[in-house]
Every structure is written in structure tokens, then in C-alpha cells.
Known about the structure:
heterodimer, A: alpha/beta, four-stranded mixed β-sheet, B: eight-stranded mixed β-sheet, seven-stranded parallel β-sheet, 28 strands, 23% helix, globular
Amino acid sequence: MAQIGTAGNYGKDIRSDCQITLELTDSGGLQIELISKIKDFFGDQIVALAKKELEFFEIKNANLKIEDGGSLDYVIAARIEAALKKIIETKKEFLLEIIPQNTNQTNRDRHRRSRLYLPGNTPKLAINAGIYKPDGIILDLEDSVAPDRKFEAAILVRNTLRSIDFYGTERMVRINQLPKGLDDLDYVIPHHVNLVLVPKCESAEQLEAVNAKIAEIKKARNLDYNVWLLPIIESALGVINSYSIACVENVIGLSIGLEDYTADLGTQRTAEGTESFFARSQIVNSARAAKVQAIDSVFSDVNDMEALKQNVLRSKALGFDGMGCIHPRQIEVIHHNFAPTETEIEKAQKIVNAYNEAKEKGLGVVSLGSKMIDVPVVKRALKVLELAGKEGE
Amino acid sequence: MKKADKFVKNAAGRLVPTMVNGREVVPFMGVDKFKPDHRGASLRIPSCSDYPSDGNKIIPTLKEALIKCGLKDGMTISTHHHYRNGDLISNQVFDIAAEMGIKDLRWFPSAAFPCNEPMIKHLESGVIHHIEGSLNGPLGDYCSRGKMAGMGYLRSHGGRIRSISDGDVHIDIAVLVASAADMTGDANGIMGKNPFGPMGLACGDAKFADYTIVVTDTLVPYPCYPWQIMGNYVDFVVVVDQVGDPDKIVSGTTRITNSPDRLLIAEYCADFIEASGILKDGICFQAGAGGTSLAFVQFMKEKMIRKGFKSRALMGGSTKFQVELLENGLADYIFEGQAFDLEVVRSLRENANHIASDVFESYDFHAKGNMARMMDAIVLGSTEVDVNFNANCVSHSDGRMLHGIGGFQNCMIGQCTIIAVPSFRDRIPVIRNRVTTLVAPGELVDVIVTERGICINPKRTDLIEATKNSGLPIRDIHDLKAEVDRICGVPADPKLSDEAVAVVEWIDGTILDTIWKVEK
Lengths: 393, 520
């Protein structure tokens, strides 16, 4: 095994990250060199942290070089750990205290109108992600991380889950395509991730495997919280199997990834989306049949807010509950346009009023005008009002 | 002579000298407390008969003009940064002085830019004794390291004209660049080969200097109209091949940010202005260059269109984004102190409602009121703020001088002064217990807007009341600071020496704070 381990990034335009070069030596103790523009302010703290971490891993002699661009402790700790684990085998994990906000669980049917993708190995984008108030943030270990950075990204994502306040946003992680994705679970399940996105999902068996691995980790660590699953359907086969996929335990929704899906079909993704109409409708249908949410693909032109709006309106009309986003500025457009219209709100209010009235009078049957109202209709109306209230925030 | 001496604690609790570069100065006494009890500067009285009878004041070279002005040791030479980083003349003035063996000059620029780095060799050789003017880039660094023979003296744009008119600074020779001039010295910055915009920073110099030289590369037949410098104030005219590079007035801060954090800050500023009721038909507001300010202007534009409002007047320095408002009928007037791009220059030339203003009109504290006061809202950037709403825009948290004051202090007189900043940058908290350098007293800062929330100065109970049910993230500044400290950690205090290298003057001429030498 090599005796020099590296991890992280450093350069003129790279902020909030650092690059670690760690060389194990035979003697001379711990030599720590810090290059940082914030050295005057945080130099002592950073060196103390590095020392504590190396001691935790029982490293007695090493040359550690930290080239820092203003990174926070959780990043520095993750980078040192990744560099070290490239040169030594250890099961130990250097964990900073988890912030109390990040131990909550989320409800199965909470709003998932927007989920913001964050490249898992780019700390700069994660630190402020929560202030944009998406319904969920996704720390991505899959496509946005280069193959040779997957390892350090998993450690960074683990630390991010523990240290960064996302202000009530649902904490999601997109793992790698299975089977590699199963290994990613070790890095996220013990750290209160709320939801795991499973990419390129084609069968219920794949999700069963994910559930099994999660159960194993929970048992080993004595964890009692639930972790939801959101499979991403990205192939023709996945679309065909979508109903059975949606029925797997802990699945709260079906999502669709159109880039891969259209490639699988042998066609191109267009703005009108004719080529994916069937798949999107099928996803919505399967999701509704399994009583889970239907969540649309991302819209990738971050500068065209009008096109995004049209996309959201089409998506809503097809029956989707939400979609992915890749830039914080998309969130408001998505929330605004997924929100119920005035007419929808008015109708929902009437239904809920009728229901409340019937309940007060002790009537078994709810009716509005000449129409009978079923419980699912009331539930849907309540949801519309809730969504309307939320949008107005 | 010591650079700075007789230190006292001023009313803001800052240790400041009362002797600076051999002149006695008054420590800051509090906002609106100091009233000068003397009359202002006295002017050299010229006579028309002393000037060429045909009105032709053209001199073949800058050197000859400087000699005719009587350039000698110890003089004060003023120049202007209208070309910003494309300034070609200031350096030449001091190269000529060096060639003539002149020493101990005081350079009194309206601001220095990285292109003025060659001045360092003149500081080292003693041609320039010290610089009084906004310092940034390499010169700011040079001064921060304590290398300058005299004290740096930082004044706002308004403070600079005040210091001239009060007689604190007597200009021996003003060298004014103009993109067009006639032979008698009428000049402007909007015509000619290399137009750059208004000349407002130079008007006071032309009036008060003993001698004024206009340097241009485009000579037009009399009259050069509209003139912003009137030939009546001009002693000599010099024609050169190129007077400046207008492409370099476009700084990196004239593009709208695509940083989501900054966009959010800009949006919160506009939302705050709307929620507080400041946004109304006929609103006057100011926003400068810088990615966040530009985005703010765009958000204001959207709001005005939605509400069917129109701005009565915008105050620059502006960019093409303000010009768009003017040309689309969303603003009646722009007062232009400084052009940040060439669209502004074009608009100044073509549109009578785009008005080149001079610093006396816009910012001077000893004017009988000024334009900044007429602004309903003003949005500014800053390097640091503190829990008492004090603001710093000249030094970074390590104490190093990196920016000029510009109009920052002068804008504090606006009806609602908003500082728009990220709550931390590269792990360094922007919200501090105490700003490293005090540039604006907290009692004048009304609102601090960050990506994590909006803090209203407790003194502005009206704004607090107006926005309390707005749904905006209004927060106590201590609470916000605590959150930022949780994210970043608490930084160690900067290591500053006890050697003063520069002072920051308040708009009334008193000394607000001292900038200390940076170790290393």
C-alpha cells in the first residue's frame, strides 16, 4: 500500500474545501503544515483538530499537509480521514458531534415538491443549501462525483449529514447504482439520513436488497429510525416494473430520470417531452396505485425560468407531486407552480367545510351539493389546503 | 515629525491620533456633533488678463504644464480615478516629478487602483511622501505594511471635497483627465475617443486648486459642451495620444452575480424595501456596482413593473442596469457620480435625464443638504459589520487595507441604509463583535441583510413595526451572529501592531478610526 494518501481539493477558485497530503513516517512525530488564508483566524483550531484526529487513528508519526481554502471542521476531518484510509486499513470512524437538528425523522407523506441536488464531494454548495428551503436536499454520491473520488465523497457526505444544518429540509442521499450503492449505505444510514435515492432502479428485488442492508446496519448499530426509499426509474424495464417497485416497504415515491431513460429508448430528450409521456404517465399511475408520491425528473436549463415554469405546469397536470432541481433559484418557481390554483383551493375549502359540518352534526355521509364525498377526496382537499398554506409562507 | 501622535480615545471608543502628518486633527465626537468654527478654504485669485488673450491654454507637454504650475518639493497633487483601472496619467505625473528630482509630494487621488502600483517606487524613492486617498490593491498593502513615510488618510468621496473646501487639504496642482476638451479648458468625460463618464469627482479640485491642468486626447473646437469642468477654472490644457483606457472602467463587479447566496441577499433587500413600505411610486434609491447590488436593481425592477411604479431618481455610480430602467420608463432620472460601464457613458451623452452630478451635490457633508439624503433606500456592500451595526468597508478582518471608502460613509445619510453582506466568507464571519476598522457608526446603519436573515437596527422601531408580519426572516443580530459562530467557529482576533499606518476620517472631518500596521 502506498504511504502517501491524498484527498480533497485546493485551488484558486475552490472554496470551503481543502486538500490533504498525508505521509506516514517512521519517526519524528506528527508534523502538520497548514497553508490557509484563514490561518490567522483558525490556524490553531485546524491544527488542533488534525492532531486530535490523527491521534484518534493512533498515528504517531506522519507528515500532514493541509492546503485550505476556508473549509469548515467537518470538511477537514473528512478529508484527513479519507487520505488516511487510502493508506491504512481501519474500521474506526472519526465522527464530530452530530448537531441536534439533524436527528429528526421525516413523515412518509410530507411535501416533496422540490429536492435540490448537491454534488456530494463539493462542500461549498452544501453549506448554505438549506437556506433556500427546498423540501429536500440530496447529497449525491452517484453521477456528480468522479469515479476516483467516490471514496472521499462518501466520508464527506457522512460528515455533512452530521454537521450541516439544513433548516428542516429532508436530508436525502443518492447512493451509487447497485451493487456499489449498498456499500454507500454504511456511510449514511447510521447518520440519520431521512431518505435514500436508489438510481437506475429496475426491479423490486434491488430495493429489497437495499432494505435488507439497511436493516442489517440498523440492527448492528441499534438504530430505531426509519429510512425512506425513493427509487429513480431510468430505463424501459424500470418503467414496466414500476408498480412492483413502488410497493416495496419504505418506498415513499417513484421518481423518474429522463436523461438515461430517453437514452435507453434510443431517442432524445425534448422540451415538449413527447418521448417520455408514456413513461411519466406510467410512473404517476404506478405511484398512485401503490399510494406513494410521484416525482418528476430535473429540468436542466438553470437560466430559463419560463421554460421551467411550463415544465412544472405540465408535470403537475400529469399528476406529479414534485420534481428535482439543480440550482437553488429553481426552487421558488417549482413551489409556486406546483401550488394549488385559486380554483383548486376554493374547491378544497368547500370540501373540507362540508366534511367538518357533517362531522359536527354526527352525519355518517358527507355531501357537497348533490355529490357524495369519499374520505380520500377529503384527504386530498386537506392536502391541497396544506400545500396552499405552505406555498404562502 | 511623527506620522501620527497624541492618541486619544474618540467618542466611538477607538484609539485615534490627534496629530496626523504634522496637522492637528479632531477626534470623532459622535454623529452630527462636530461643527467647524472657521471659514473655509481661501482661493488664489486669478485674473482673466493673466491668461492668453485668444483663450488658447494649450501647452505642448504635461511636463511643461507642471513646470508652469511651479511644481516643487512638498506640493500636493490631485488626480482622479475616472478611468478606474485604465488610468494612464497619474503615474506619468509622478514619473515627471521623479525625472525633475522633486521630493516629498503628497498625492491626493480620489482613489488609487492596481494600475497605480508603479507609485510604490516613487514612495520608496521619496518622490511621494504619502498618499491621502482611498487605497486598495498593491498600494493598500504597501501602506498596511507600514512602509509609507506618512500616514495614509482615508476619506469618503464626500469627505474629500469637504477636506478641500474646509481648507484641510490645499491642492497645489490638480491634474484632470478629460475625454474631450477645448483649448480654453472646458472639458467633459463623455465625448471624444475614450469617453469614461462624469467628472464629478474632479469638480471641487478644479475650483479650489491653485493650478488646474486638463489633459485630454480629443481636442474639440470651442465650446466643448456640455462641459463638466468649466474652462474658467483651468490654467493649462495638454493634448496627449491617449488619456486613458475606458475598457478598464468596467470592473469585475459589473456583472450580475450568479451565486445563489448573493441573489438571495439581493432579493431579501428588495423584499425588505417592499415589505417596509419604502417601495412606492416615485421611490428614489441608490445601488452601486457589485454583483449583489446589480441583482438588487433587477429585483427592484421586477417589483416596480408588477406594481406599476416608477422611480423618480436613481443615484449611481451606475451600470447598464440602471440605464435600462431609465430607457424603459421605469426611472425619471439618474444622478451619475461615476460610470461603471460604457452603456452609462452612452446614456449620459444621449439622455438629458441622465445627469452627471458632482460630489458636492451628491455627498458633501458641508453642502446644505445633498442627494444621498434624498434617497429612500440605499444598498451598500461591506467587508464586516458588528453586533452594534457598525460597518467596515476598508479593511479585511486581518486588518489589511483592501478597499477604498468611496461613497460608503456619505450614503449613511440616506433615509434607509441597508448593508447587504453574506454572513460569512470562506469561514470568516462577517458579523463580528467589533468591526476591525470602524468606517460607519452603527447608529446610521438601518438594516443588515444576509443570506440567513435580516437584522434591523433596534433604533429603527418604525421599520421593525412595518415588517413584523411580513414573513421575511427578520432576526436579532446577536442570534444571527451566534448561528454564524456555530457554523464557522469563533475566529481568533487579528494580530495587529500598535503602529498606526492610516486614519479613517468621518464625513465631518473628525478622525473615526486608525488602521494599524499588519504584522508579516
